[in-house]
Design a protein that fits this description.
The radius of gyration is 21 Å and the shape is globular. A hairpin with a 6-residue loop joins strand 14 and strand 15. Helices cover about 10% and strands about 40% of the residues. The chain has four helices and 19 strands. The strands form four sheets. A six-stranded mixed sheet has the order 10-9-12-17-14-15, with no helix packed on it. Strands 11-19-18-13-16 form a five-stranded mixed sheet. It starts with a helix and ends in a 17-residue tail after the last strand. With about 325 residues, it is mainly β. The chain folds into two domains: about 120 residues, Cupredoxins -  blue copper proteins (Immunoglobulin-like); about 140 residues, Cupredoxins -  blue copper proteins (Immunoglobulin-like), CATH 2.60.40. It binds copper (II) ion. Copper (II) ion binds next to loops.
Length: about 325
């Protein structure tokens, strides 16, 4: 009798759960903006182009299997068409990724089928200029199966995106050729988290000694690879493209292609405070902005590298 009463309820619950799961979608709306933006710790501003006003654009974080319902709005005050190219999507470059004119908007959906860390960027002509002016960001697709021994849960998470800074007024052609390049932007600013090389820098990445710190790294340079090394440390584990199956152990320097992403974990000694400098070990890019200090100390801010604080602005 009890079973007869319970059974329909259990079946009903299962169906409801399945239908909710099948229709799970995450709505993301971004607005392309062309505006002046501060690009260093001294407050120098330059005409940049962005998704939603920041470099990088907003962090998108979904679970594998979820559908991203995306809308790009191109602000009516803009002078250029813009587009969105999600590297996490399988789509049609001529359809979903097509350009949107100023004052117009475009919606498309895709299912996030592959776990990992991916770049998104504007692909409008000239793509060099749109990326070099700041139209890029990060989408994290979390594995459907969650964490495991092979892909352990981190204590802190940070997103780092390296990109280019060119002299104000550089032509698209010169950007493509790498002329008039002046610096590496780390999350939108030169030496953003490096008070050692820039006295105007006030931010660092923080953790407690012994914590597992996960870096979601994306290379938004238009031509250059990144040689990512944690000075005074070793990458505990690295997942190529952030896919849990692509794991490497104990690496010193990791080559990351333009437009590629990696997940890199570092674990500092638990018995004392230490510091790392996460550097693009290609010196031209390091000494022009591409270094970030990661401090491990007992009174690390409990909010940093957690919740919505993965991109430190
Ligand atoms: Cu654009």
């Amino acid at each position: 009798m009890l079973l007869k009463t319970l059974l329909p309820a259990v079946i009903g619950l299962a169906v409801a759960t399945a239908s909710v799961h099948a229709s799970e979608s995450v709505k993301v709306v971004m607005t392309a903006k062309e505006h002046d933006l501060v690009v260093d710790n001294r407050g120098t501003s330059q005409r940049m182009w962005t998704f939603d006003g920041t470099i990088p654009g907003p962090l998108v974080r979904v679970r594998q299997g979820e559908v991203v319902d995306f809308t790009l709005r191109n602000h009516e005050d803009n002078g250029n068409s813009h587009s969105m190219d999600f590297h996490a999507a399988r789509a049609d470059v001529l359809d979903e990724f097509a350009e949107v004119r100023p004052g117009e908007e475009k919606q498309f959906s895709f299912k996030a089928e592959y776990p990992g860390v991916f770049i998104y960027h504007c692909g409008a002509d000239s793509m060099s200029e749109h990326i070099a002016r700041g139209m890029y960001g990060v989408i994290i697709v979390e594995p459907e199966e969650g964490y495991s021994d092979a892909f352990p849960a981190p204590d802190r998470e940070y997103v780092l995106v390296h990109g280019d800074l060119f002299e104000e007024g550089t032509s698209a052609r010169d950007m493509t050729m790498g002329n008039r390049w002046v610096g590496t932007l780390v999350n939108g600013k030169v030496f953003h988290y490096d008070p050692v090389h820039d006295p105007n820098a006030s931010l660092t990445l923080d953790a407690k000694p012994g914590e597992r710190v996960r870096i979601y790294f994306v290379n938004a340079h238009i031509n250059d690879p990144v040689a990512l090394h944690p000075i005074a440390g070793i990458w505990e584990q690295v997942w190529d493209n952030g896919h849990p199956k692509n794991v490497s152990h104990g690496l010193q320097t990791v080559l990351i292609a333009p437009s590629h992403g990696m997940i890199l974990d570092i674990v500092s000694p638990a018995d004392r405070p230490t510091n790392n400098a996460i550097v693009d070990h290609a010196m031209k890019r390091a000494m022009n902005g591409g270094i970030s200090v990661l401090m491990h100390h007992p009174d690390a801010d409990p909010e940093m590298g957690r919740g919505d604080n993965l991109i430190i602005r």
